[in-house]
Task: structure prediction
Amino acid sequence: MASSNRPSPVLNLATRWYNYPLTMKKTKSMDTVSAFLSPYAHRIDHYLDLWVTEEGCPPALREVMRYCVLNGGKRLRPSVVMLSAEAAGGDAADELPQRCAVAVELIHCYSLVHDDLPSMDNDDLRRGRPTAHVLFGEAMAILAGDALLTRAFGVLCEAVQLDNPQNGAHVGRLVWELTRGAGSGGMVAGQVADMDLCEVPEGPEGLDYIHRNKTAALIRAAGRMGAICANSDEKTLAAITGYCESLGMAYQLVDDLLDVTGQITALGKTPGKDQVNGKRTHVTELGFDRARELSEDLTACAVEAISPLCEKGQKLQTLARLLVERNC
Ligand code: IPE
Ligand code: IPE
Ligand code: MG
Ligand code: MG
Ligand code: MG
Result:
């Protein structure tokens, strides 16, 4: 028997998500980021649509998985996969980097669904729409997150079936990179620390640990996966890794700054939640101005880290510079 506080799945399916008006408004700085990423974002949206669920997925679950994924995210992480593949001399349009890009975005989307749950950050707005648990109930949101996480590895492993035998050789390493970035020594470790569920050092060292894991680890995996798809040499892989580590830290820092200054219509999520939830951020530890400076320093580090790639790294440099100025 369904518990009384859990919305009925039948009601949920009838309450089609497209009845909910988008609250998001494009801003000038976001137009610049979107315009820059749009060739990559369009491609990733196409493949996400194709690959988000697998055969045998119940329609009710498919509906929720699609709701959580096909909803206008910035697609930063899959774009980093593709840009890194190109920076390492590969073709981002090949199927293997596409599969990596989809896998990384599916993991990111699951992490957002779980991050928003009442037992975590308790958010009711995401990408301009009600969060999955608000619309479909907590159990379905948890399970859809589980399914997205698992599907990410399915999408990646299906590359073994492609004609190119080299893909098969890469898949094991790509899966390993993804588990390192997303798992208990990466993103989940950061989320546990962010929720204050494990020992974390006081001060900037502890905050670095949280950001490095909860956000930078998946971005680092994204860059490395793109480079691996392109058969990158060690020097290129090291440059992309260093770039992604700094970019990931800067990205979370700007997210924390925007939680203080951002507008709900631009962010598509509710600002001010870090304070409500009593989160440790660079804003609480350093003050707003110093935190802003640090985001710029980290961006400069990202730009510097990729400089050995010369022109091949230019798009990644541009991305870092645009992201630090974003307002959503
Ligand atoms: C939000 O990520 C969570 C963070 C780690 C900062 P994004 O800001 O990339 O969210 P979407 O994918 O564009 O919605
Ligand atoms: C989320 O960080 C990091 C994840 C691994 C999902 P936040 O909790 O700051 O992200 P938002 O602000 O809810 O998007
Ligand atoms: Mg969080
Ligand atoms: Mg959150
Ligand atoms: Mg945040």
